UniProtKB/TrEMBL annotation:
Entry's Gene Ontology BP terms: microtubule-based movement
This protein's GO CC annotations: microtubule cytoskeleton
Cell compartments where the protein resides: Cytoplasm, Cytoskeleton
Gene for this chain: Kif25
Xref: SMART domains: KISc (SM00129)
Protein name (database record): KIF25 protein
PROSITE patterns: KINESIN_MOTOR_2 (PS50067)
Residue stretches making up the Kinesin motor domain: 147-544
Species, as recorded: Quiscalus mexicanus (Great-tailed grackle)
Length: 561
């Protein structure tokens, strides 16, 4: 054990020696490692400092170059700024001088504008005065010509004029022309009887149209009357004459065969009714918007009964409905429940008139294959909107103003009527304004009448129902002659109610209304008797003037016709 202890102690001492040696080696290795680390750090620092130095140099060099370039750019910019500043300063000075000049010019323009406004106001006042003078002179001219004017149109000979007349006169040449336009105001008629010398008779009218004059020429003399319509006067234009004398052609124009539609393709052939409507809308277009509106009604007087040709059934189909004409408290004629359609242009008007024409009664006779058996009355009602303050200035003529004041209504309903058919002529208005706005509306009428032709029963050859129609036609024309005769003689009572036709036309015949009678004459020998009757009617109608009293009998269709 002791030996073992000695051995172990010896080994322990050896191990301690080795441990001390290894510890010395480890210490040296650590120092070397630290030295290596330090050397490495120094190497890295050296390398970094070298790169930094190089970068610093490069950056410094680049900065110098950039500074130099920037300095050069700043110098150029400064010089350019100075140049632009000078330019802008010059421009600003020029602009200031220009503004001063413009201000001076503006002041001059303002002075001129003020002077022009005053001049315009003076011119406008003079224009209004001249406008009123023109209206007064126009109406005076119409009155000098006669509130009832008569024009005469002689149609050309037509193929059916070659047909023979009465059986006892077959040897005579009935296609011979006996009526001529001697000049613009004279009709010459050659009257001859077997065994007697020929006698020439002349008739004077305001205008006479020969068989070569166009529809344009006829309407040119009608158009001035339409100005009176917008001046506050009722106007009536009617075609009077025997069957087949060209009344419907004069009033409507040519019609398509088998259809009563207008042949609008030939506008130069349009008659008075479509042309008058065109002129009315042209005149309205020159007025302030919304100050006028137009309603149309189409009726026929058949067998002394009035039929509304625009009335519709529950399905919206147009059919003629019998109406009656009454006299209102104001003494004006009115047709209760008559259909009035609002129209805004000529196309809408022609569409409605065409509908009415399709219901008009026609019947063939020996004189005319499409003889109208009723009087057609197309009425345009023009409503003028007038503010209460401007009512006196719109019509300065005292008599006209007083007359229209009686006719004016003072307030409007509250909403605008739909542009469709209405069943009342007075109950509502197509333009509705607030009830609080005190306004007036003045209604004037343009009645365009295509009268049925007067007939000689022996010439037309009608029998049965057609004969009864002829009787009513001639009675109504006789009533019209009686009314014009009463007006010519200035009777206290004018028999408007003797016929539905004259009752319907009461507001447009006589008084301040303007009436134009277009006599239509057939030139052939066969129609000489009827032509003479028509010319006699026109001669007496011319005598209806203000202040003139004529004590002669008015020619009427004879009872035997």
């Amino acid at each position: 054990k002791d030996e073992r202890i000695v051995v172990l102690e010896t080994e322990n001492a050896v191990l301690h020696l080795k441990l001390a040696e290894y510890q010395g080696l480890a210490g040296r290795s650590t120092k070397e490692v630290l030295q290596l680390y330090a050397a490495h750090d120094q190497q890295m620092q050296f390398q970094r400092s070298s790169v930094v130095t190089q970068l610093h140099g490069a950056i410094k060099k680049r900065l110098k170059q950039d500074l130099k370039s920037l300095h050069s750019f700043a110098l150029e910019l400064s010089k350019d700024f100075q140049r632009q500043s000078k330019t802008c300063l010059y421009q600003l000075l020029a602009a200031v001088q220009g503004l001063q000049l413009q201000n001076e010019a503006m002041q001059m323009f303002q002075i001129k504008a003020f002077d022009l406004e005053q001049s315009l106001q003076e011119v406008t006042e003079r224009y209004e005065k001249e406008k009123q003078k023109r209206k007064a002179l126009h109406n005076s001219l119409i009155e000098l010509r006669g509130n009832i004017r008569v024009h005469c149109r002689i149609r050309p000979l037509l193929p059916f004029d070659d047909a023979a007349g009465h059986s006892q006169d077959r040897q005579r040449n009935f296609s011979e022309k006996v009526a001529y336009a001697a000049d613009d105001e004279t009709v010459l008629v050659k009257c001859s009887r077997p065994g007697h010398a020929s006698v020439n008779k002349t008739f004077q009218f305001e205008r006479v149209y020969n068989d070569l004059e166009s529809q344009d020429a006829v309407f040119a003399d009608v158009a001035p009357l339409l100005t009176s319509l917008l001046d506050g006067y009722n106007v009536c234009i009617m075609a009077y004459g025997q069957t087949g004398s060209g009344k419907t052609y004069t009033m409507l124009g040519p019609q398509l065969e088998g259809n009563l539609a207008f042949a609008i393709e030939e506008e130069s052939e349009l008659g008075i009714i479509p042309r008058a409507t065109q002129e009315v809308f042209r005149l309205i277009s020159e007025k302030p918007p919304g100050s006028y509106w137009v309603e149309v009604s189409v009726v026929e007087v058949y067998n002394n009964e009035i039929f509304d040709l625009l009335a519709k059934d529950t399905c919206g189909k147009v059919f003629g409905v019998k109406r009656d004409v009454v006299t209102t408290r104001e003494g004006k004629s009115d047709v209760p429940l008559l259909t009035h359609e609002t129209v805004e242009n000529v196309s809408e008007f022609l569409h409605l008139v065409n509908k009415g024409l399709q219901l008009r009664v026609t019947h063939p006779t020996l004189v005319h294959a499409h003889s109208s058996r009723s009087h057609l009355v197309v009425t345009l009602t023009i409503t003028t909107v007038v503010f209460g303050d401007n009512f006196g200035t719109l019509w300065e003529d005292e008599q006209t103003s007083q007359r229209l004041n009686k006719e004016a209504s003072f307030t409007f309903p509250q909403k605008m009527r739909d542009n469709k058919s209405t069943s009342s002529s007075r109950a509502s208005s197509p333009v509705q304004l607030e009830a609080t706005e005190k306004m007036k509306q003045v209604k004037t009428r343009l009645q365009l009448v295509d009268l049925a032709g007067s007939e000689c029963v022996g010439l037309s050859g009608v029998t049965g129902a057609a004969l009864r129609e002829t009787s009513f036609i001639n009675r109504s024309l006789s009533a019209l002659a009686d009314v014009l005769g009463a007006i010519a003689e200035q009777r206290a009572h004018v028999p408007y109610r003797n016929s539905k036709l004259t009752h319907l036309l009461q507001d447009s015949v006589g008084g301040d209304a303007k009436l134009l009678v277009m006599l239509c004459i057939s030139p052939g020998q066969k129609y000489l008797t009827e032509s003479m009757q028509s010319l006699g009617f026109g001669t007496r109608a011319r005598q209806v003037q203000r202040g003139q009293v004529k004590k002669k009998n008015f020619p009427v269709p004879s009872k035997g016709k």
